Each structure stands twice: as C-alpha cells, then as structure tokens.
Amino acid sequence: MLADKLSPENWMYGMRWKEIKYHKGMQVIWACTFAGGALATWYFFRLCFRAPDVSWRHAANPQPWERMPQTVQYKFYSPHIDFKKRGLYPDAGRPDIDLRPH
User: Fold this and answer.
1) Which of the two residues, 86 and 21, has the higher pLDDT score?
2) Which residue ranges make up each domain of the chain?
3) Contact in structure between 71 and 87 (CB atoms under 8 Å)
4) Which of 6, 10, 26, 52 makes a 20 to 30 Å CA pair with 93?
5) CB–CB of 74/51 below 8 Å?
6) What keywords appear on the UniProt entry (predicted)?
7) SS3 assignment, position 51
8) What secondary structure does DSSP assign to 3-43, as a single string?
9) Do 73 and 83 meet the contact criterion of CB atoms below 8 Å apart?
C-alpha cells in the first residue's frame, strides 16, 4: 500500500530531526541545501525585479532596456567599473560597432 511506503518509518536515514540532531555530516548537508535554496530564491527574485530585459507592464514600457538611465548598474557584480561615473555604454573614443540607432 502507498500509505505504508510513505510512512515515517520508511524514510531514509537523515530525513528526521531526531537523526539529524546527532549526525554532524547530515547537519552540514542540510545547512548547505537550505542555504543554496535561499540564495537561488533570492537571485530569482532579483532577476525578476532588477534585470533590464524583464517587463512587467508591456503596455506602458514594452522594451525597458531602451529606456535605462546611464547610471543604473544592472550587472550582478562588476568590481572594476563604477557605473555612476562611466555609464553603461563604452567611452566616446571607441568606434561604435553595434547597431544601436543614434
């Protein structure tokens, strides 16, 4: 019967708190699993609300990446670039190689 297979007596070792409480290796595994899940959830919501290519209001702003201000940092981590000083686009001295309209 399915109910007998899903009963707590048939769970694998390390799935109950009373077993995890005394097993240091399982505590580390569970801590890493929960930390990884929390970081993945945080990063998912960060992408949903801060990425330039996500549009929640298609009628008001169908292409949000075209209206981004120059000083917005949308990259996750860029240690050498200060976007408040430099802006998003390359310096004026570099040749324009992309097809953005001017």
Assistant:
1) 21
2) 1-50, 55-92
3) yes
4) 52
5) yes
6) Membrane, Transmembrane, Transmembrane helix
7) coil
8) HHHTSGGGSPTT-SHHHHTT-HHHHHHHHHHHHHHHHHHHH
9) yes
